Hints:
Layout: E1 8-12, H1 18-32, E2 50-56, E3 61-69, E4 72-74, E5 77-79, E6 81-89, H2 98-113, E7 117-122, H3 125-129, E8 134-136, E9 139-143, E10 154-156, H4 162-173, E11 182-184, H5 188-196, E12 202-206, E13 211-217, E14 222-230, H6 236-243, E15 249-252, E16 264-267, E17 273-278
Parallel strand pairs: 6-7, 14-15
Antiparallel strand pairs: 1-2, 2-3, 3-6, 4-5, 4-11, 7-17, 8-17, 9-15, 9-16, 10-12, 12-13, 13-14
InterPro entries: Acyl_CoA_acyltransferase, GNAT_dom
GO molecular function, one term: acyltransferase activity
Enzyme class: transferase
Amino acid sequence: xxxxxxxxxxRSDYLGDTAxxxxxxxxxxxxxxxxxxxxxxxxxxxxxxxxFAWFDAAGTCIANISVFSLPLVMNSTFVxxxxxxxxxxxxxxxxxxxxxxxxxxxxxxxxxxxxxxxxLLTDKPDLYARLGFRTLxxxxxxxxxxxxxxxxxxxxxxxxSEADIALLSRLLDGRRPVSDRFAPxxxxxxxxxxxxxxxxxxxxxMEEHDAVIAWQAGEDGGYELxxxxxxxxxxxxxxxxxxxxxxxxxxxxxxxDHLGWDGEAVADEGDMVLMLRAAPNLRPDEPFALSPMAxx
Length: 296
């Protein structure tokens, strides 16, 4: 339990309280410009999420960090991991140690629950390195498009359709990890939320495979494969043939070990980095990337 702060109340595990959920949403919208209440129409927030936060007497969320279950496959092995997200502090209360307090409470919770690893995404890696987190270098996989794939029927999905959200939810709950190098076993809420934020995203159901392809058209005739959701992973050649695209090049945003295709691993130079708090030997052995659809 964090130390007392005059005029503030510490709360945890409050997502069942509509007013408090709205207060967290207000903090995150003010800080990041993202409205997480969009989750309400997508099935609700992650039920595994446990927030740690300070509130003032008016019910304003002053500081927050949330822990959620993020089971992973890493190096073909199951890892019981947690993720950290929704970390923010009201500008009027920054620099006072409130974020340190909620982080310490969250990490103590992770340790008590026996998580083998804790992951987060940040543009301030030095802040978290002091708490035992290490940066994991991510890659994109780039190469020429395979040809000769088998064509199967495809149907475009609509993230605004309740029926298509239900279909996606079913596939996400029973999906095969998109890579054995590093991939979440579940991340339904973030996939749906990220999809709702990406106007150029295309979600195509390969009906014979019962798999959804999340992709975007790239620059200069390129093709960007962001994720594949299904009990099986179709070969990249079959994906391109079914979508009837013949790109000049392909960029895959996850390790392509199930695609029947190899691309050149190119280091990601983006501002956001993936960090892991775990035993020193627990890290991917080969180049990988967290799918953009799983970002949190």
